[in-house]
Amino acid sequence: MKKLQKIAIKSEAEKRYKILEETLIIQARSAVVGEMLGIIAHQWRQPLSVMAMVTNKMNLQELSSPAPSQEMLSDIAVLERNISYLSNTIEDFKNFLKPEMEKEWSTDSKICEQFHTLAYPILKFHNIEQEIRLHDTTEFFIYGSELIQVLLSLVANAKDAICEQQNENGKIIILCEHLPDKEEYRFSFSDNGGGIPTNILETIFEPYISTKGAEGTGLGLYMAKIIIEEHFKGTIKAENIDDGACFTIQFPLTCKEKV
């Protein structure tokens, strides 16, 4: 009996060590990506600034002409918006990959704006519609990048499920709402990707449990659970709905403990 217990303890220890090892690898890769992005951002900042100055000059010249062309002004406005979008995207990626040592006050609109910038390209590529429903401007005290990391893990799973179902009308809905009676905040993340197989629904947040077979590591949702439970002192759960799955994240507004 004791021998079996020792074997079980050893097996569990080896499993935890493997999880820790893979988590450290992921963190190391993120650090490298963050450093590379910082270099790219530095290199891109100058040409973007030059492009912004040139478009601004063109705009002033056109406005000062006797008969300004509305078509030209419209084209210049398009250039200005795209230059601004590129600059903001670089900043969002830098902020996302930058390690956070302290929590900050944030709102659902701020979180969802940064999340949208990061998730939009992949969702657009797969023709998946995204709808974000914001109900208030309540502030909460969190690690912003970590919450975005959790949302990106959920969108990756939803995208894979929708693509596997070959759903041409793929849709993801994020509902953000304050729960004043509990002084908590809730993010509900639902999709129409066919749902989670019933045989893994109860264990979906355990490590190495994946719906992607050999292609999945099963660490994305496990890390999401660790972040929400340990860093946010909250809860995360999954359930099947009519045509897909729904993940619900809930956490207190002012949990100020240091990690």
Tell me what you see in this structure.
The chain is α+β, with helices and mostly antiparallel strands and 259 residues long. The chain contains 6 helices and 7 strands; from the N terminus they run ααβαββαββααββ. It has helices at residues 2-64, 70-97, 108-125, 144-164, 198-201, 220-231, and strands spanning 104-107, 129-134, 139-142, 171-179, 184-191, 235-241, 244-252. Strands 2-4-5-7-6 form a 5-stranded mixed beta sheet. It has a two-stranded antiparallel sheet with strand order 1-3. Strand 4 (171-179) and strand 5 form a beta hairpin.
Quick overview of this protein structure:
The chain is of the alpha+beta class. Helices cover about 55% and strands about 20% of the residues.
Give me the secondary-structure topology:
Elements: H1 2-64, H2 70-97, E1 104-107, H3 108-125, E2 129-134, E3 139-142, H4 144-164, E4 171-179, E5 184-191, H5 198-201, H6 220-231, E6 235-241, E7 244-252
Parallel strand pairs: 2-4
Antiparallel strand pairs: 1-3, 4-5, 5-7, 6-7
Helix pairs in contact: 1-2, 3-4, 4-6
The coarse silhouette is: elongated
Provide the succession of SSEs. Answer: HHEHEEHEEHHEE
- Overall helicity: 55-70%
Strand order of the largest sheet: 2-4-5-7-6
The overall pLDDT average reads: 80
Features:
single chain; 259 residues; 5-stranded mixed beta sheet; alpha+beta
